[in-house]
Amino acid sequence: MTIPAQLIQKLRAAQRVTVLTGAGVSAESGVPTFRDAQTGLWAKFKPEELATPRAFRQNPKLVWEWYAWRRQLVADVKPNPAHLALVELAERFPEFQLITQNVDGLHQRVGSRNVIELHGNITRTKCFEENTIVTEWPDRGDIPPKCPRCGGLLRPDVVWFEEALPEVEMDLATRASISCDVFLSIGTSSLVYPAAGLPIAAMRRGATLVEINPQPTPLTAQAQFVLSGPAGVVLPELVKHLRS
Ligand code: OAD
Fold first, then answer.
1. Which residue's CA lies nearest to atom 14 of ligand 1?
2. How many C-beta atoms lie closer than 10 Å to residue 205's C-beta?
3. pLDDT computed for residue 37 by the predictor
């Protein structure tokens, strides 16, 4: 993997760097992406059958169990060299902001700090009725379990289709995007808005746009630098160049 010398120069001169990650960054840990035709999470189910408030109202048991399966999968995997490289990358700039669409918490597990989670976190649970985080509940064998305060159903604290993104997080992510010198979009299909609008907003404000992805996306044509390869290979290589 060759890293363009101009990109290294841009990064060496950068004061503020913002990174947006998607499911591709966790792919090499063994977490399936969403849209891979064979192995993607949506290959067996339609997203609207599992990841919408309507689906949860209609079949809360199915939705809870699907997320329980994913929670276990995430608990069993390890962060990969891409997650590790992002921890080191953060140390190289006066200002660095990591934004993720991933709900697996792998960035934080390996030591990334101040991560903006745009789509929530699968390890947290909230009340479907009250929208408040719930950390403990009595195990009465109910699936899904019930809120100890109001008796409403509990659900994962993730953003579903048809739901708004958390306002504070989206606001912070927008600010970090429109004020950075270099924006890296890594392992995301750039199809799901509003997250997919962040690199565009960064570019319009003059940031250098870098994409890391083995496949082209709708963002590819607009990026100044396209590093076509798996994040677990490309990112460690990028960090190595910045070290020397
Ligand atoms: P997708 O499944 O849409 O896209 C994953 C991207 O990762 C694709 O562009 C792949 O080419 C790329 N990829 C695969 N392996 C890779 C690797 N080793 N290194 C780098 N890139 C790799 O996942 P997201 O873009 O994260 O939202 O999807 C965005 C949102 O759509 C998700 O957060 C989720 C989903 O619906 C919600 O659930 C709200």
1. 24
2. 13
3. 67
Query: Which contiguous run of DSSP H or E holds residue 122?
Result: strand 120-127
* Best residue for ligand 1 mutational test, from 1, 34, 184, 234 (most atoms within 8 Å of Cβ): 34
Is 1-30+79-119+164-244's fold the same as 32-76+125-158's?
no
119: annotated active-site residue: yes
Look up residue 221 and give its DSSP letter: G
Residue 87 alpha carbon to ligand 1 centre in Å: 20
The residue ranges of every structural domain in the chain are 1-30+79-119+164-244, 32-76+125-158
Q: Is the CB–ligand 1 distance for residue 81 below 6 Å? A: no
For domain 32-76+125-158, give the CATH number.
3.30.1600.10
Q: Per-10-residue mean pLDDT for the chain, 244 residues long? A: 94 98 97 83 83 96 94 96 98 98 98 98 97 95 96 97 96 98 98 97 98 98 98 98 90
Residue carrying the six token digits 């044509």:
221
The CATH number that domain 1-30+79-119+164-244 falls under is: 3.40.50.1220
The CB density around residue 192, as the number of other CB atoms within 10 Å, is 17
